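FIELD: query
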Amino acid sequence: MPKSLDFGALVDAMASQINIFNQTITGTKIEFQTYDFPQTIDTKKAQNLYFIFLELINNSRKRGGSKNIQIDFFCYEYSLVFQCIDAGEGFDKSTTNFGFGLLSIERRIKEMGGTFSIESERQKRNDNTN
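FIELD: result
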């Protein structure tokens, strides 16, 4: 785990990791944007969000086959928004069981008092054909 997380410097830890990913992983480009996100946050939240970030990238690449991943952090007065958009194949939420990774993400988010949602283009396409 990056030392910067010990101080709640989530953005620095993620930017560094994305730089490493982009230099070492062929065939996938990861972009990262922050909007009004604080330089430091609560250490436990920073660690949880970092693990979520790693799991989302792993899922996007390995399960979704995504070549492009966009990670966005927004900060509003009373909330943080973490968004991951990828160009993977998607999945049908009504027929797909969440694996350990997505269940772990959901658990971490709920522990922080947040909400977790997934939108899938494959799901939208299936909904529109029914």
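FIELD: remark
The chain is about 45% helix and 15% strand.
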